[in-house]
Amino acid sequence: MVPVSFAPLPFAGEELVLMKSNALYWPRESALLVADLHLEKGSWFAKQGQMLPPYDSRETLERIADGVKATGARRVITLGDNFHDDAGTHRLDPYAAGMLESLTRALDWVWITGNHDEQMHRAFGATLVEELELNGIVLRHEAKRGETRPELSGHYHPKMRLKVRNRHIARPCGVISRSANNGDRMILPAFGAYTGGMDAGSREILRALGPASRIDAVLPAKGKLVTFPLYREAA
Fold it and tell me: Of 51, 93, 127, 230, which is most buried, counting CB atoms within 10 Å of its CB?
C-alpha cells in the first residue's frame, strides 16, 4: 500500500509514485527508480582544483536508503550517470562504499549505465546493464527520440522554474510525454546531491520526448501531483 502522502502518477497502464526526494516508486515491481546520482562528483571537482564538501555520495546514498525504508521497496534500479566519471567507483571513501555494499546486498540492485559512466569499473555486487525492459517499459539513461514503447529515462536533470510570492525558484521535476500513437514516456528528475538542472521546457527535452501529443512537467506537492503544460500538438 502506497502512503497517501505520496503523489500517484498514471503511466503506461501502471500507477507509479513520484516522490518528493525525486525518486520514482513502482509499487507493482516493488522498485525504487533513481536517475543521475553522479556519485563522487565532489571528489571529481576536487581533482580539478575546485573544492566542494566531499560528502555528496554519503548524502545521496542515505536518501536512497530513506526511500527504500519509506516505500518498502525490494529493488533499486538506477537510470545512468550513477558515478560522475568512470573512475568514481574507486574514489568512494570507506564509509560510503560500505553503505553502498550494504544496500546492494539487501536489495535487488540494477545499475543502468549512462554517458558519464559507460565503463563503470565496479558494480559493488549489483547487476550492470546498458538498458532494461520491464513489463513493457524501457528503462534507459537517455530518452530515444521517436521511441514508440513506454520509456523511463534520466540524463537531462529537468527543473521547473516558478515564481512564488514574488520569488523565482527552480525545482527538480519529471517531464512526461503522452501520445495516442506512442507509449507514455518520462524523464525523471536528477536524484544526486550535486546535480544542476535544465529548464523543463527546453528545446532539447521537448525534442527528446517527441513526437508527442502533449508534454507536461510534473511536481509532487503536499501529496498531490502538480502539472505544468509545456507543449500541446496543434489541432
Answer: 230
